[in-house]
Amino acid sequence: MPENDLPVAQIAQLLGVSETALRALVSQRDTNHGDSTLVGLTVAEAARRIGIGRTKLYEYVTSGEMPSVKIGRLRRIPAEAVNDFLDRRPKAADYTTAA
């Protein structure tokens, strides 16, 4: 486990759990999802959250289906726009199967 400045013993005491249990929980967390506190995602981060490629997400940005903002030379996708985009997409149950 990487060393950091967090006082794990104090946090464990405040939470009412053992330091060992807290350290075990921290070591088990999935760190592949990136920083969930970001409000402006790169196109690659937004595409990864949706499960599509960058090129496809750029198509959605260009068409206006996925809102984005330019900050200098950077393009950012608002984090809440990812969920809104998915909510607007048709669900598989909305289609009838061909017989």
Task: Explain how this protein is built.
By secondary structure, the protein is mainly alpha-helical. The protein has helices at 8-15, 19-28, 43-50, 54-63, 79-88, and strands at 40-41, 69-71, 74-78. Helix 1 (8-15) crosses helix 2 and helix 3 (43-50) packs across helix 4. The termini are far apart. The mean pLDDT is 81.
- Helices, by number, come to 5
Order of helices and strands: HHEHHEEH
Mean pLDDT level:
81
Give me the side-by-side strand order of the main sheet: 1-3-2
The amount of helix comes to: 40-55%
Describe the largest sheet. Answer: 3 strands, antiparallel
Structural class: mainly alpha
Distance between the ends: 55 Å
Portion of residues in beta strands equals 5-15%
Uncertain residue ranges:
none
Rg calc: 20 Å
Overall spatial form:
elongated
- The total of beta strands comes to 3
